[in-house]
Structure formats: C-alpha cells, structure tokens
C-alpha cells in the first residue's frame, strides 16, 4: 500500500493548487477582467498555438518512431491522435479571426470548430490512457494503415469545415460571442478532463514511474497536471466574447502548460531518459576504462616484477609476451625473445613432444604440468642461450581472444630443488638399506644368541639337573640335604623353562624347523595362554611357504602387532588372516579393542609401527593401518611375490 505521494505528483499538485486559486479569483471577477483588451492579441495567439502544435508534433514523433517497427496499440493511438490534434490546431491557428483571408465571423466559426475537434481528440486520448484498456502488439502494416486513416479523416474533416462550415452547429456569433453549443462542448470537455485528472492522480500515486509492462513509458504525474490545466483552460475559453479579451490569452497559456506537461510525460521519459542513461553509461564507461587501465598497469607491474618466468605464445608458438625473469632464466633479453619461436628455449629432442602436449592441452584443457607437484611426474627441460640445459617446473593455461588461442606458461628453475630431492632420495635409499641390513644383522644375532642359549647353556643346565638327580639317589645324604637338592632341581627346571622362553622370543625354533605356519601357530598358542586373549589364525601351511627373509619379516610384523594389542588395545579377540595369490601375499590383523587416535598412527615415537612399516617397505609391500575409536584396529599388509619364490615353493 502506498503511504507517501511521489515528489513529481506533489509538485504537480502544488502547481494545480496555486493556478486554481489564481483562476478562482479571476473567474469571480469575470465582468471586470473581461474589459481588459490585449494589444496584438492575434500574434500572441498565433505564437501560443504554434508552441502547442510543435509540442504535440514532438509527441507524435516520439510515439511513432521511438520503437522503430516494434509498436503497441497505445503508442500507435497516441501518435495518430496527437498528429491529428496538431493538424487541427494548425488549421485553427490559420483560420482564427483576423488572420489573412479569415476576417469574417464565419471564419471564427471555422476556427472554433477546429478548436473543439482538437480539444475533443486530446481529451478522449487522455481519458483512454487513464482508463487503460490494455495494450497489444500492432503489426507495421496495421499501424501504417491506422496512421493513413487518421490523417485522411483529419484532412477530409478540415476540408469540409473550410468548404461547408454551415453543416456544423454554429459556435460563434458576431457581437454575441460564443454560442450555447460551443459553451456546452467546453463544459463537457471540462468534466471529462476532471474525471481523467482524478484517475491519473490515483495511477501516479500507485505507479510513480510507469505502469508495469507498459511498452511506451508515460509519466502519469505530468498527465495529471496536463488534464487539470486543460480543464482550467477550457473554463477560460468559455468566458470570452471577442478574440481580443485577456481570457483568450490566459486560456492559451494554460493550454501551452498542458501541452508542455504532455510533452514531458512522454517525450522526456522516452527520449530524455534514455539520453540521460546514455550519458550516465558514458561516464561509467570512462570510469571503467580508467579502472581497466589501472588494472592493466598493475598487471604489467606484477608480470615485470615476478620472480617466476612468464611467457605467452600464440597458436604458431611465437612468443608475444616475455617477462624479465623468463629472459634472465634463458640468458637472453626480452627483446631477443619477443617474436621468436618457443623452440628457441626448448632442446631439440623435446620439441615434438612439447608441441603435441600444447596442442592436446588446447583441445582438451587437460595438462599434467602443474606447478608445485612432484617434478618427477613431469617436468620440462629448458635450453639456455649458451646451450646448457636445466629442469623447469611449469604450469600452462590458455585463453581465446578474437578467435585466436593464446597459451601462457608460468615456470621456475628447479635445478637446486631437483638436486636436493635426488640427494634426499639417495639418503633415504641408503637409510632403508641400512635399516634392512640392521634388521638382518639383528635377526642373525638373535638367532645366534638363541642357538647359544639353547645348545650350550641349555645343555649345561640339563647336565646339572642330571647330576642332581644322581645325587638324590645317594643313600648317605641326609633328609635335610635331600630337600635342598629337590629345591635346587626345581630352580634348575625353572631356569631351563625361562631359558627356552627367552630363546623362543629371540628366535623361535619352529620358524627354522617347521616354517612360518608352525611358528605362527606356536606364537598364537603362547599369546593366548600368556595374556588370556582369544587369537585366531586363518591360514594354511601351503599359503605360508616362503623363504627365510619373508618368513622372518612376516613373523616379526605379527609378533609386534600382538605386542601392541597387549600394550594398547585392551582387546579380547584378535584375528589373523592370510590370502595368497600368484602375485602377492595379503594378510590382516584385526582386534576389537579401543582403537587408535589418528594422530597416534603417525607419531615418530611409535617405534613398533615404524619398524613394521620399514619391514614392509623392504619387501616392496603396502602397509595400511585403520582404526575406529571404540571399535578396534585393522592392519592390512600386501607383499608382492616374485616368480622365483613361487617356483621355489612349487619345487618344495
């Protein structure tokens, strides 16, 4: 709901109010004021009528031509109506009493007949706009026919008035002034204009600019002013007796104000408005151009000062943009590279592949060259002016401008990084080899110590127990000594058991004597018996027929995993499952414990996990550790198997 009156409507209302007050004063003193005779009334009348004709002709031009061939019913009606009004106004002006050739009272009747017709057309047109019968498209052919018919009827009526004015009711009598017919017509026009003004006021208040979906933009506030001015002007035109009275001039002044308001309502909004918009667009264009220039200078500054090389080439691989950093990397100047082929900075052996890559990138937009990725995946070799080569990390992009594709490459010299990475890779390889050697040495030492403990110390303890057994049979030994000997025998037995456990932990004999399957079975039984955790092994002996290195590594991985279960997981069940294919051996260790925090999986201090990863890496395998808090942990390992190993197992 509209709660405020638009400013234009407020101004129109104030103008109407002020002029109405002045008019009421003049109308109340008609008898006295009508005595004022205007000198040179005829030229003044002609000038005011001419102004009105020009304004109405402008309205016709706008309504007819502003939309080229795209016309609507309202714009066609307005154009034809105001053209016919202008024609009738012209004939009214030239036939007004006193004009050359029009001196008789009958001529004044002709002039007023033209006047009534022009006022009737304008009044009916404004009322039609106020009622708003709707709008519809009109074909160019139909609009031209309507224009032709309107002009024809106007000219035919004008000819009739000039030739046979007596066919029309009399509108003026010499000495008596206007007839009752003419005054009644004026009263009817006044009433219609008042109704029109009220309708336009409501529309202007609801729609300050124009009605929604209106093809021809019309300012209703100005039309409201025009209708009110026409109503007041018709009052003045109904009061005079002869053409020299001041009321004629005042009425024509109000008529010009009305015509000017109509002009403003249609011409200004449809012609002046677009020109104002164009002017504003021109200012915005200038501002945008300046902003683009600033961006261009900023971009040029960035390119010139960038520490990375930047090169732009066209479809023929001609360099059209080279920044100083790029020129310096290749040992050239910018001027030397501009316009030359990109092949100048690429070794000859790489040129064909590079051309193919650029062509494919232009077609698909896909490239493997991305700055910041592993340069081992893909890097470019650059060629300096002295013939030396160096590695380049580069990213490429493209754009199409005026149908021409351009490629831009941003690159940097990665010689130092490549050397550093190669050094790191070499050190890592050496560390891995050292770790593998230490694991082997450690395993050999454990095997040696376990063998020494079992074969030497174990034999000695066994012999010692045998001696004690012989000593127990001696009848000369007292009962007290017998008890001491029995205690010593029990200690020796405990020592032998402990010795065997230590030797097994160092190197289970089942691994050397029965293979990995029996070693894991022994480990499973000992683990369950010692810690009370149910441990299930899902495997068969054929799956686990491996060489000593693989068997030892897998046994140690599972042994370390079970140790972690005891230390950290608080699990009640553990499953160990093996699956073997001709290509790989996969096994998993799953528990139902409390799980591992994500951060704990990658701690440097987690030596058990680090050791398992190193063992898997030494066998070129894949190590995957996953865990869900409260649900347990899963370790999955996949180890590739060589053909030699399979052949060895088949032989067995």
TrEMBL record:
Recorded coiled-coil stretches: none
Domain of life of the native organism: Bacteria
Domain PAC: 376-426
Statement: the UniProt record of this protein carries the keyword Kinase: yes
GO cellular component: membrane
GO biological process, one term: regulation of DNA-templated transcription
GO molecular function, one term: phosphorelay sensor kinase activity
PANTHER family in UniProt: NITRATE/NITRITE SENSOR PROTEIN NARX-RELATED (PTHR24421), OXYGEN SENSOR HISTIDINE KINASE NREB (PTHR24421:SF59)
Listed name of the protein: PAS domain S-box protein
């Amino acid at each position: 709901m509209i709660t405020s009156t638009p400013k234009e409507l407020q101004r129109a209302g104030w103008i109407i109010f002020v002029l109405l007050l002045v008019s009421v004063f003049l109308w109340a003193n008609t008898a006295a004021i009508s005595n004022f005779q205007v000198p040179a009334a005829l030229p003044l009348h002609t000038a005011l009528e001419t102004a009105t004709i020009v304004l109405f002709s402008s309205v016709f031009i706008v309504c007819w031509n502003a939309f080229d061939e795209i016309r609507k019913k309202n714009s066609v009606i307005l154009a034809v109506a105001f053209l016919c009004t202008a024609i009738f106004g012209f004939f009214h002006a030239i036939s007004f009493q006193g004009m050359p050739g029009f001196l008789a009272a009958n001529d004044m009747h002709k002039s007023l007949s033209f006047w009534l017709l022009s006022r009737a057309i304008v009044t009916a047109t404004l009322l039609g706009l106020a009622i708003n019968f709707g709008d519809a498209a009109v074909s160019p052919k139909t609009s031209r026919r309507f224009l032709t018919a309107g002009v024809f009827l106007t000219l035919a009526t004008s000819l009739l008035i000039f030739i046979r004015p007596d066919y029309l009711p009399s509108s003026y009598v010499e000495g008596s002034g206007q007839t009752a017919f003419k005054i009644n017509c004026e009263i009817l026009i006044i009433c219609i204009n008042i109704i029109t003004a009220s309708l336009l006021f409501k529309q202007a208040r609801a729609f300050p600019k124009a009605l929604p979906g209106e093809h021809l933009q019309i300012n209703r506030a100005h039309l409201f002013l025009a209708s009110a001015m026409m109503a007041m002007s018709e009052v003045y035109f109904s009061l005079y007796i002869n053409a020299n009275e001041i009321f004629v001039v005042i009425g024509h002044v109000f008529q010009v104000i009305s015509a000017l308001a109509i002009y403003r309502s249609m011409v200004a909004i449809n012609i002046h408005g677009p020109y104002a918009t164009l002017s504003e667009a021109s200012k915005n264009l200038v501002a945008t151009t300046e902003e683009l220039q600033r961006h261009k200078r900023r971009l040029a500054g960035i390119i010139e000062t960038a520490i990375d090389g930047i090169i732009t080439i066209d479809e023929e691989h001609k360099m059209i943009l080279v920044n100083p950093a790029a020129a310096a990397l290749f040992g050239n100047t910018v001027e030397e590279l501009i316009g030359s082929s990109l092949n100048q900075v690429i070794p000859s052996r790489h040129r064909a592949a590079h051309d193919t890559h650029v062509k494919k990138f232009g077609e698909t937009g896909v490239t493997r060259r991305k700055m910041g990725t592993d340069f081992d995946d893909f890097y470019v070799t650059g060629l300096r002016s002295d013939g030396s080569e160096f590695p380049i990390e580069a990213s490429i992009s493209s754009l199409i401008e005026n149908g021409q594709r351009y490629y831009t490459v941003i690159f940097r010299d990665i010689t130092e990084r490549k050397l550093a990475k190669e050094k790191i890779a070499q050190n890592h390889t050496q560390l891995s080899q050292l770790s593998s050697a230490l694991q082997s040495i450690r395993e050999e030492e454990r095997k040696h110590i376990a063998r020494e403990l079992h074969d030497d110390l174990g034999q000695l303890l066994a012999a010692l127990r045998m001696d004690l057994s012989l000593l127990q049979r001696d009848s000369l030994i007292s009962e007290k000594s017998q008890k001491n000997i029995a205690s010593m025998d029990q200690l020796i037995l405990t020592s032998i058991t402990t010795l065997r456990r230590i030797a097994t932990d160092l190197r289970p004999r089942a691994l050397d004597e029965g293979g990995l399957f029996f070693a894991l079975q022994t480990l499973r039984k000992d683990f369950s018996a010692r810690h009370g955790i149910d441990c299930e092994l899902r495997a068969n002996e054929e799956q686990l027929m491996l060489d000593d290195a693989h068997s030892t590594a897998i046994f140690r991985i599972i042994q370390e995993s079970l140790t972690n279960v005891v230390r950290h997981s608080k699990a009640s069940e553990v499953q160990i499952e093996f699956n073997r294919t001709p290509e790989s051996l996969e096994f998993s260790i799953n528990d139902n414990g409390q799980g591992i925090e994500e951060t704990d999986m990658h701690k440097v201090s987690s030596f058990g996990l680090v050791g398992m990863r190193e063992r898997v890496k030494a066998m070129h395998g894949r190590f995957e550790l996953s865990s869900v808090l409260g649900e347990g942990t899963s370790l999955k390992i996949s180890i590739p198997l060589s053909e030699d190993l399979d052949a060895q197992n088949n032989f067995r």
